UniProtKB/TrEMBL annotation:
GO terms for cellular component: cytoplasm. CDD domains: GST_C_Metaxin. InterPro entries: FAX/IsoI-like, Glutathione-S-Trfase_C_sf, Glutathione_S-Trfase, Mito_Protein_Transport_Metaxin, Thioredoxin-like_fold, Thioredoxin-like_sf. Pfam families: GST_C_2 (PF13410), GST_N_4 (PF17172). Gene3D superfamilies: 1.20.1050.10, Glutaredoxin. This is Thioredoxin-like fold domain-containing protein. It comes from the Bacteria. SUPFAM superfamilies: GST C-terminal domain-like (SSF47616), Thioredoxin-like (SSF52833). Residues 19-113 form the Thioredoxin-like fold domain.
Length: 233
C-alpha cells in the first residue's frame, strides 16, 4: 500500500497545493491501492516539500518522482499518445508548472489584500500571536525568490497579460475535446488542471482569479478533470 502525503483540501480544491492535487490525480490514474495522509508541515519531507509517497518504508518526494515511481510499476499516463503529442504535452506541463504556478504564488503571497486570508488558512496551526512573525519571514523569502525569478517584478496587469497567453493556448486545445489530448485524461491534464484550479480558487478576487473563474471553457475543464480524478478528503 502506498501512502501519499499531501496538503489538505482547501478553498474547494482537492488540495491547497497544485502539486499535491497532481499527485492525487496520478494515483487515481495509476489505479494502484493508496491512501491519503494530509499534512500542513512539509519540513521533514524530501527537499522540505510535499507531495511525497511512502512505500515499504521508503519515501519518494516530488510529484515527478511519484510519476516516475508509478510508471516503473507499469502506469502509462499517456496511453495512445503519439511522440509528437507527448512532446506537446511536455511543453504544456512546463508552462503550467514553471510559469502559471508562479502566478498562483504571486496572487496568494504578494497581494496585500489576499495575503491575510492565505496566511490564516495555510498557517492556522501556528498560534495566532506567533503567526504574523513566523509567516512574515516565510513571505519575505517567497517574495525574494519571485523577484529573482522575475515575475515578481511585474504589475498585476502585466502578469495577467503574460498568463493570458498560456490560458488561451490551453483553451485552444480544449476546443478539440474534453481533455488536452482527447477523450481521456493524460499526464498533461493531471499537471495543468490543478494549476488552473489554483488560479481560480484564490479566496480573494485577483485579476487572474477573475480571468479563470469567468472563463466557461477553463472552468468546465477544471471541474471535469477533478470529477474524473479528484478527491476532497
Ligand atoms: N517540484 C515539486 C514542487 C512541490 C512544491 O513546490 N510543493 C510546495 C507546495 S505547492 C511546498 O511543499 N512548499 C513548501 C515550502 O516550500 O516550504 C513537485 O512537483 O512536487
Amino acid at each position: 500500500m502506498i501512502t501519499l502525503t499531501v496538503f489538505p483540501p482547501m478553498f474547494g480544491e482537492t488540495s491547497a497545493s497544485s502539486f499535491s492535487t497532481k499527485a492525487i490525480y496520478l494515483m487515481t490514474m495509476a489505479g494502484v491501492p493508496w491512501t491519503r495522509e494530509n499534512s500542513s508541515d512539509p519540513r521533514k519531507w524530501p527537499k522540505g516539500k510535499l507531495p511525497a509517497i511512502t512505500v515499504d518504508g521508503k519515501v519518494i518526494g516530488d510529484s515527478d518522482g511519484i510519476r516516475a515511481y508509478l510508471e516503473a510499476q507499469g502506469a502509462d499516463f499517456d496511453k495512445g499518445l503519439s511522440d509528437l503529442e507527448k512532446s506537446t504535452s511536455r511543453g504544456l506541463i512546463r508552462m503550467a508548472e514553471d510559469h502559471l504556478y508562479y502566478h498562483v504564488m504571486l496572487d496568494r503571497w504578494a497581494d496585500d489584500a489576499v495575503w491575510p486570508t492565505i496566511r490564516d488558512a495555510y498557517f492556522a496551526d501556528i498560534p495566532k500571536p506567533l503567526r504574523g512573525l513566523i509567516t512574515g519571514g516565510l513571505r519575505r523569502n517567497v517574495m525574494k525568490g519571485m523577484h529573482v525569478q522575475g515575475l515578481g517584478r511585474l504589475s498585476p496587469e502585466e502578469r495577467l497579460a503574460r498568463a493570458n497567453q498560456d490560458l488561451e493556448a490551453i483553451t485552444t486545445r480544449l476546443w478539440e475535446g474534453p481533455f488536452l489530448f482527447g477523450e481521456q485524461p493524460t499526464l498533461a491534464d493531471a499537471c495543468v488542471a490543478p494549476v488552473l484550479g489554483g488560479l481560480r480558487s484564490t479566496p480573494v478576487a485577483t485579476l487572474l482569479s477573475k480571468r479563470v473563474s469567468e472563463d466557461a471553457v477553463l472552468g468546465a475543464y477544471i471541474d471535469r478533470v477533478d470529477e474524473a480524478l479528484g478527491q476532497k478528503s
